[in-house]
Each structure stands twice: as C-alpha cells, then as structure tokens.
Amino acid sequence: MMEGLKMADTELMVYIHPSKCGNEFNAVCRQLSSLLFQYDETLDGVLLAFDFAVKSKGAKVLAGLNPYFGVKVESKLLLFNPKPNSLVEGKIVKISPESIHVIVLGFSAAVITDVDIREEFKYKLRNGEGCFVSRSHKRHVLKVGTMVRLQVQSFDEEVMHIAGSLLPANTGCVKWLEKQSEEALRSVDFCCTHSLTIMFFVRNLFYFSRDHKRRKIA
Amino acid sequence: MSNREVDRKDDQCLEQKNSLYFVEWIQNNVKSSGIPLKGLSVESIFAGMDKMEFTEDFIVEYQQLPASLPLYLSVGGEAKKATSIIKPCSTDYIKAQERMGASVGLTDPSSYYVVGNSDLPDTETVQGVRNALASVHNGGSDAYDQLVETIQTNNKSDHAVAADLDTLLNALSGAVACIDTDRHRSLLSAIFRMSLYDHKDHIMDALVGLIISLAATSGKYLDSCLHMLVRHFVPPPWVIARLSQSRVSGQKQEVLTRVHKTLLKISLLVPLAPSRLFPMLSQQMPKMNKKDQDKALVIYVENLFKLENSSIGQVGGNMIFMMVMERLRDLDLEIDWDDILQDDSNRGVFDMELEDAMHEGDELPVGSLNQDTSSGKIVFESLDKLMVTSFHHLEACQDAGRLDQAFEKLFESFENFILNTYKSKVSQFLMFYACSLDPESCGVKFGSKLLDIFLSSNKPRPTRMSAVAYLASYLARGKFLPVSYVASMLKRLVDECADYCRICNDDTRPEAHQLFYSGCQAIMYVLCFRMRSILDVPRFRSELIPLESILMHKLNPLMVCLPSVVAEFLKQAKAGGLFVVSDSFIFDDLLESELSRAFGGCERLDTFFPFDPCLLKSSNSLISQNFIYWSTVMNQDDEGEDDAEIIVNGDEESDEEEEEGDLDYALNKMSITPKHSFKNNMERDRLMKMPSMIRPSTSPESL
Hints:
The structure holds two protein chains of two kinds. Chain A is about 25% helix and about 40% strand. By secondary structure, chain A is α+β, with helices and mostly antiparallel strands. Chain A is elongated and about 105 Å long. The model of chain A has no long low-confidence stretch (mean pLDDT about 85). The longest helix of chain B is centred in the middle third of the chain and has 27 residues, at about 375-400. Chain B has helices at about 10-15, 50-65, 80-85, 90-100, 125-140, 140-150, 160-175, 185-195, 200-215, 220-230, 235-240, 245-270, 275-285, 295-310, 310-335, 335-340, 350-360, 375-400, 405-420, 430-435, 440-455, 460-475, 485-505, 515-535, 540-545, 545-550, 555-560, 565-575, 595-600, 615-625, 630-635, 655, 660-670, 680-690, and strands at about 30, 45, 585, 645. In chain B, helix 15 packs parallel to helix 19 (about 405-420), helix 21 (about 440-455) packs antiparallel against helix 22 (about 460-475) and helix 21 (about 440-455) packs parallel to helix 23. Residues about 20-25, about 30-50, about 65-120, about 360-370 and about 640-703 of chain B have low confidence and may be disordered. The interface of A and B includes residues 94, 109 and 160 of A.
C-alpha cells in the first residue's frame, strides 16, 4: 500500500488579472497549474493533480493599480506528503553496491543507502547487472525495474527527494510481499478449518471415551 | 621457477613502451609466467609481483613515499595496517596493484593484463574513504585532508597521482551518503571546482560517475552538480584559442559528449532535474562584454541545441528556443542597421534591393563605418554564426523527424520576441528557414498562424499590423510556397478587407482604419511579386475580383498606402490586365506620403517589410535558394514600360543610354521606375560608394 497520498476538498480564492475577464476557467487552470509538482506549506503537500469548479458568478475586485478580481473556486486536490516512517512504492532505476535509486510516482527521486538496507539482502552480480537478493528467500530479488516498497526516513521538499529505508520487514519487492501476504491469509484459513476439524475430532474422542466408560459401568 | 628469475628484456621494453601506465616505484612490474592462469588458454604475461616480493617491497617503498599517496588505505598511517589489507589470495595481486595506483594499460592489444573488476571500487577502498570522511567528526582529520589534497592537485604529468585520483573518485562515489554538507565543505568545493577539460578519459569517467552519485543521492548537491556540468558548456580560454588543433577539438568533443550523457543520466535518476537546469542555462549564457566571448557564445548555443534535441528538450525545449531567440534579437538590435543601410527616403523599396544586387562584389570598406568598427564587426559575425548554428539545428530536428514539434516552440518564441520588434533585420529568418525545410507543414502553418493573429480581435493593433506585414513579406518571398497557397491566403485577405469596406464608419482619417490599410498594402505587396503566377490561373484571378471595389472604396487605399508599392502594383495590374485604373495617380517622386506615415504610426509599419534580403553572408547563402529576389521578378516581366496611367516623375531611359559605363547600362536594364536622376554625377558617386552595405552574396546567381 502507498501512504502519503491524500485527497483534499478545498475552497480557494484565485486572483485573476483583468485581461482574463471572460476566460476565467483558463485563467484558474493556469494559476493552479503553476503550483503543480511544488510543495505548498498551506496545502501541506506536493500538488499532483486538481479538479475544480467555479461556484459563484460574482467576484470581488481588489483595489489597487491593477484591479485583479478574486474568483471563488471549490476544488479537489491530490496531495503527496510522505511523512517519516510512512511507506511509499516506486520503481528501481539504478542499483549499486552502496545504494538503490528509486523513482516514486514518476517524479520523486528516492535513495536507499546500504546502511539502510537490512542484513537480509546481499548485493550480487547477475548477468552483468547488480541486484540485491534476500539470503533467506532466494526468490525475493531487487533489481532494476522492480517495484519496491520502502519506508520514508525524510523528505526534501525543495527537490522532492526521499531518503528511504529497507530495514523494516514489511519493505521490499512489492510483488513478493503481496504474494507472501496472500499465502499467509490462505494458510490462516487452512489452519483455521483444520484446527476446527481437529478440535471436533478431539471433542468427539473425549465424549466417546466418556460414553464408553459409562457403558462399562452400566 | 620463481618470478624473480624470470626477467626478460622484452618485458622491460614493454614496461618502457607503456610507461604512462606504470608506476616507477614498483620494480619490474611486468613478468612472464610459463604457467597459464586459470581461465586463460595461452601463456599470459601478467602484471604484478610475487606476493612475498610485493609485500616486502611495498613496506619498504611505502615508508619512503611522499605523503601524497592514498593514506586512506591506512587510517593510522602505519605500514603494518597496510599489509593487513593485502589478503593472501592469488587473485588479489591485481586488486592490490590497483590499490597502489598502477593502473593497467587496457588499450594496448599486445598486453594480456588480467584485470580485476575495475568498474566497481573495492568495498575496502570505499570503507577506507568512509572512515576518512568520518574522521572529521572525530577530530583527527589527517586522512580527510589528504583526500582533499589529492583532488586539488592538478598535476597532469604525475601519473601516480592521476591513477590515485581515478581510484579515489570511484571510491568517493560509493561513499557519497557519508558526505556532510557542513563538515566536508572543502572536499565538496574541491570536487565542484574540477574541470573535465584538464583530465584524461579515465579520470573524466570517474569524476562524472561521482557527480551522478552526488546528484542522485541527495537533493542538496543537485544544484551544484548541474551548475558544474553546465559550466563545461563554455570551454576554458586555452581550448577556445586552440580549437584548430585536432587534439584539442577532440578533447572538447570527449568532454561535451560526457557532459550531455551525464545530464541525461541525472535526469533519469532525478526526474525534476531538468526544471532546475533551465534557469541555470539562461544564467550561465555568455555575455558579449568580454573579448573572445563570441566564440564561447556560439559553442554554448550549440550545446543548448544539443540539449533541445535530447529527451531533456522534450520537457523544456521551448525555454531553450526562447533563450536563443532573445539573444539573436538582442544582437540584431545592437547592430545599427540604419547606419549600414543608410536608409534614405529618396530610395524606393524595390530600388534599394536592386542596388544591393548591383554592388555585389564590393568588400566592406572598414574605414567608412560610422560606428565602432571592431565591436560592430564582432557582433555582426557572431550573429551570422549563431544564425547558421540555428539553421543546422533545424536541419537536425528535421532529420530526427521532429521539426513540427520544434516549429511550434519556435513560433512561440518568435511571437514573444520578434513579432513586435520592428528593428530586427535577420532574426526572423529562422522562421523562414524552418518553413523552407518543410513547406507543406511548417510553411503552411506559419502563414496560417500569422493570418490568425491578424484576424483575432483579442490582440493589440500593432501586433496585428505587424503580423500582416510579416505575412505579406513571407508570401512574397517564399519560393517554396505553392501558388495555390498564396492565392488562398490572398483570398482571405481580400474577403476580410471587402467585409471591412461594407461595415466601416465615415471617419476619413487614416489612423482610424490602420488595419484595413495594412491589409490592403499587404495584398498589393504580394501581388507585386506574384502577379504573373496568380493571374495565369483563372480561378485565382476570379478570386481577386472584389479587389477592384476595395481599391476604389471611399477610404481610398491607393492614396494612403505606401506610394512606391502602389505605383508598382498598378503598373503590374495594368500590364497583367487585372483591371484598369481610370484615375491618374500623381506620385511626384514620393516614395512615402504623409498619409502612409499616418497609417503606419510611429513604428512605421507602412514601410515594414521584414523578409527583405538577409544581409548576413553565411546565413544568406543558406537562404538564397528559397528566396525570391526582386530582380528575378523583374526579369520575368516582359511587358514594356509605358506608364500612361501612372505619372511618375521619371527620367526617360533614353537619356541614360548615352552615358558610358557598364554600371549605367546594368542599371538601365534593371530599374523599374527610374526615380533617381543618374545624370547627376554626385548622386551616382554616392550610390557607388555605398560604404557600409553588405551585399547578399548570391543574388546575381538568381538572375
């Protein structure tokens, strides 16, 4: 799962230059587009996408040299703010013995240095390409192109840079992790049904032995 | 038999041949062995020393060596620790040798050196570097200081140091995460001050690898890394001065290839890098205030265009075009074209061009320029070179199949910077060239976009008038434009003017109907050049029927528009049989009237013909085959020159035939409406001198 993404319903006041009168939709679009892929403190996140509707026909005109007018806009904003210790997912683009480079959501660069990769993973050269293979599970491989889930240690808002970590057990190759959790679920079901059967059997044995004793006495 | 006994002479020769790659202080570096190594089928000469021999010699030499050697191998500085690094394993001979900095020669095919995994730094080397970096925190920063010093030493002749640098940089790229911006400031500044131009290929690769690691690992270094790479777009003065030498230009090529590859790699690893790159590109663009900056500027722009053609250009290519267009325009405006052209109100639009053609072959007499010759000439030449560079880039875009995409961006920057600049004389030819490369797509688009600007009521009036002037000049001069296209554009203009005639108000002042007059003048100007080809096709001819009523309208465009254009147009219209004008127009040697000045406004849009022949030699040589010169048009005109309807103060040609000189005869053949009195010697001398005119170099060929 990917944490750090949230939808926000907001009410914004967008101030537009008088020359754009009659073309407010485009002007608001342009204004909001200028905020894309930038961290905004007020919004508390990086704006990734927006959808808006101009609610009222009237607008307040600002007094001043250029009479900008403020249009009230209701918008849905998609924001990205990975907090420390949250999990994000991304694609590996480069592997070296000392680091793994990942791209998250296509725009944010994440780096996991070797000190943040758990002991389980060992760097190996396979077919001339570097990869990290788990010592305990040979199928758990991290190589270029793998979708990986990592824990966020810090997020640099200026360059959208994530410092990540693969120390927690629930991080690693997404496919492999999901397969593991699926199997875990299935095995729980199996165990559950089996344990019920066993319990039933044991219970029956118990009653049987009790009856047997009773009959003997009788 | 131990290696010590094997000591052939040829090995020593080999060592001497490849002396660049050997460190002197490892004795007898090359030995031959009769035992083939595992994995090799032939007897191999392997570089290295016997383990024991190596260890002993190593300790001895190490203690005697200067301090500049990598101390990161032994953080404590003790020789004992150094020996412990060498593992008792046979394959580590080579690794050990790498550590000692004797890099093996890979380029010599006659050598069979067994090379270890030299692409990745040894984990222990990386660990050593990390320890050195960490030592700053602990207080004993000797190892760290040695690191910094190794990087700062720029001694190319010292091969030992060069080899160390290589290993060190590779190891540093592995230890990037341990670099701290505050504590390791000297190291970082030393790295960023390095220049690829100073080093050999293998160090360049190592440095580039380090830069990529730095940029990708932490956002803090991204800007500095990009800044350092962009700095390489301008080679240092010693490279620029010696570019004629193949070795130097080869080095420049190597450096720039690597820089571009690195920028691409960084943008792959850090997707937002291009957005941080573009502001830097415009900041670092060379200004023209110092000497020799013109060559630097041309190289810089070449690199900008290379970026534009790459995947980084997909993201922000229009920024690059904007930068280049702006610079072209600035250089264009710096040149005092008025001085050069000696704009004289006595000379008509068409005559000026003929005189240019006539004076072909004259060199630019330096002394007669009024302005500062040297700087003016430099600006002139740099503008010429930049234009040619841009033309080559457009050709490259076309080869890559992305001319359409580039054209959109180009038009945007044209609209931004050039359309409203009335004094630019050559920058607009970038558009002309792009259109000539792809007439069906770009050529058509350019005209349609200009027409849209003229017709859109949202744009300010001077912009609209300027757009129609561009359209007129473009349709007249573009040899590559099919007649059908020209005719369709004309039709739209005619229809638009006809509509205007119907709905206009009664105001008689020319200022009130500027758009109308500029539209009419545009139609007449295009027809001056294209009359024959349009009238030859009956369908196009029929489309021009409303023109007569427009010209006869009470707004009287024939009186208000530029007289020289009107005169020429009427003459050709009569000759072509388009219509016969019953009124006589007395122009009295007027090439512009008060009325035309009134509609033209202060920018003189009535005399604005942006695609008049290009005055830059090299640029013009690329344009001229697609350019229609007035002289070509004139030579097609077979009709006689009786001007019954148009009374122009013209001297009879018969007078001139008596005068001697080839010049006059040539003039006689080429002039249309003789407006000058060539009988006057002074006038003739003045025209012949024409000191500061630059001739379009190939126009006689078009005759």
